[in-house]
Amino acid sequence: MAFHASPYLLLTSTSLIWSLNWVVGRAMVGHVTPLTLTFIRWAVAVSVMLPFAWPSIRTSWPAIRRNWKLIVWLGFWGTGFHNAFAYVGLQYTTATNGVILNSAIPICIIVLGWLVYRDTITRLQTLGVVVSLTGIFAILTAGDLSVLASLTLNKGDLIVLAGMVFWAAYTIYLRNKPADLPPLALLACCACVGVVLLIPFAAFEMLFLGGGVELTPATIGAFLYLGIFPSFVGYVFWNRAVAEVGSNVAGMFIHLMPAFGVVLAWLFLGERLYAYHFAGVALILAGITLTTRGRRPATVTAK
C-alpha cells in the first residue's frame, strides 16, 4: 500500500482519526469493558488488514523471522497495551485530565528519544513544544490557566500516562524498522502480536471482573470504526510519516487532537465555540510550525 501524500497531511489526518477514537471510546463506556474493547478493536483491525498485508507478509517472511523480537516489542508497546491503558484509565479519571495527559506524548517522545538514542533537540523545537502546550492548556482551561492549580492526579491519570509512555516507546522504536520489511507487513504482524497478548487479559476481565459487551447496531458500528480507522488507516499514516520526518516532529501533531476535539464536539454535540478555542488552535498550529521548521533530518536505522 503506497502513499504519496505529504507526511504533514498524513499526520494531520491521523490526529483527526484518533480524536474521534476518543469520542467513540468514551461513548462505549457502559456498553463494553475496556480490555474487551481493546481486544475487539484489534481483532477487527487484523481481520481487515490481513487481506491487504498478506502478499507482502509472504514475500518478506525471511525479514519478519529475522526481526521477530522487534515485531514483538512494537506489538507490545503500540498495539497491545497502549490502548488498553488509555481505556482502563478513563474509567477513573476525567476527560479533561485524559486529554492533558494525551498531550504529554510529544514530551515523552522527546525524552525517550534522548535517553535511548541521544537525539538532539533544537531551540525552535523546544519553543514549539512550549507554544503548543500553551495552546492546549488555553483550550482545556477555557482561557483561565489558574484552573491547572486545581487539577489532581489519581490512579486513572497514572494509568493513562503509562499508556502515553507506551506509545512514545512504540514511536521511537519505529526507526529500527529494517529497510526490507514493508510497513504494512510490519503493522499487520504487530497487530497480530497485540491481539495475542490481549487474549488472556480480556478473558480475565470477562471471567473474573464482570466484563462484557453489548452487541447492538451502535456498538458494532463503533467496533468497525475503531478497527478500521484508528487501528489500520491511522497507524499506516503514522508509521509512514514517522519514517519521513522523525519521531519528534511527528509527536508534535498529537497536539492537534484537543483542537480537533473542540470541532468534533461542536459538530456532534452542539457545543459552542469561544474566543479561547480559536486562540488555542492558533497557538497549537504555531507550535507545530516552529517544530517542523526547526527539525533536523531523522536518523533511521536499517538492519
Automatic annotation (TrEMBL):
The keyword ATP-binding does not apply. Coiled coil: none annotated. It comes from the Bacteria. Keywords: Membrane, Transmembrane, Transmembrane helix. It is found in: Membrane. It is a multi-pass membrane protein. Residues 8-140, 155-292 form the EamA domain. Its main location: membrane. One of its GO terms (cellular component) is membrane. InterPro entries: AA-Vitamin_Transporters, EamA_dom, EmrE-like. The chain crosses the membrane at residues 35-55, 67-87, 99-117, 129-152, 158-174, 186-209, 215-237, 249-268, 274-292. Belongs to the EamA transporter family. This is EamA domain-containing protein. It comes from Usitatibacter palustris.
